[in-house]
Design brief:
Blueprint: E1 5-8, E2 23-26, E3 31-33, E4 38-39, H1 51-68, E5 76-84, H2 89-100, E6 106-112, E7 122-130
Parallel strand pairs: 5-6
Antiparallel strand pairs: 1-2, 3-7, 4-7, 5-7
Helix pairs in contact: 1-2
Length: about 150
Amino acid sequence: MGEAVQARNPSDVHAPVAADTHQIEVAAGSRWLVPSGQIGMRVDGTQPADAIGQIEVALDNLRGNLAAAGMEVGGVVKLIGYLVGDVDAARRRDALAAFFGSHRPCMTLLHVAAPATTAVRVEIDAWAAREAPTDGPVAVSGGASGWR
């Protein structure tokens, strides 16, 4: 994650129960990216019918937002997943592992009663940080979805 962030799992707190980290401290002067929540909708407007497919597309959308801001997946410091209905936990973990690799951001997962629109079963909210460039400002792009 570089010098801009420091991940910690305090010894006086239980071990993480998922592939995440208890806390990440972001240094002063770091660049932040806070995109809108990403849903599992492709550029052409289509959505996978199943939640795992929507998770994969939403993560691809997050990757696109990170790239537009000159950031990478390893810069994600916090991820919140909102899921509607039953979602296969093992397949969800596999999708997140494929996206994050060995990176372990802070994560929260919530099951919610209803989506923003009926076809949406997944929304992913994330924050990312990285060291600020020393050679001037960098444009930052926002997300593609929002609360409706």
